[in-house]
Specification:
AhpD-like, Jelly Rolls, 2 domains, six-stranded antiparallel β-sheet, three-stranded antiparallel β-sheet, 9 helices, 13 strands, elongated
Length: 284
Amino acid sequence: MLETRKASGIEDSFGEEATPLPENFDSHEAGNQVRNELVGRDITDNPSAYARFAPVIDDYLKAHLFGDIFARDTLSYKDREIATLSALAAMEGLSPQLKGHFRVSLNVGLSQTELLDFVQALKTSVSAKSADTAGDALSEVIAERYSAEGIRVSRAGIHPPTKGSPDYFTGTAEIDNRFGKHPPSVVRGATVTFEAGARTAWHTHQHGQLLIVTEGSGLVQEWGEAAKVIRPGDSVWIPPHKKHWHGASANSPMAHIAIVEDPQGNATEWMELVTDEQYSEANK
């Protein structure tokens, strides 16, 4: 393969050599400690069926793979897991192994966001099929972790609301981020309270948005269409990539709950502010 790459004009540079291991290095003991760290529990006495059937295989893995190879300091544990996940995602029928290595990846410090970014990189740089396989496995692993935690209640008032940025809002709007994403769910939401006359800038949402009006009277408008009045109890569905704004009417404050799907942290694309002329026309 290296010769083929070289013939194609690709120059592969060689990495640094690993630091030599000490003479008294015990690969079996070191490997046992590394494996326990990776899986997050003590499996010195490995209960796996293969280890019971052929203990020599388990000894070899501990001493050579987790001992000798993992002791080489040219790659971090995180780097090794990303490389392993990449190889597993490219092959079929290895979902159990993928889930196992996603668990290890979380144990060694890779975040859920980094692993979701990894799945997205597979989609854009490898194939949709490999990304779907990896994404399904990751979703199951994350769901396991959150299910183990049980039901969580987030109390109102713990986090103070923030003021909407003047880059994205005209007038005074307060944003209370009521809930973030709880993987495998990619849904997050906030309560937004607008003073009379306040509104968002024009914007779009990658996966759409749901608004539920809770107080006051407001407006929502799609680009090129007439504004619509919204009142408490109304729900508004805004399809993906529809340019729009929403906010309070000129003579009344308004509050709504806003819910979006945000798998990659880029659910909203902000655009220009709504002009006073556009807003006045919407209030007629």
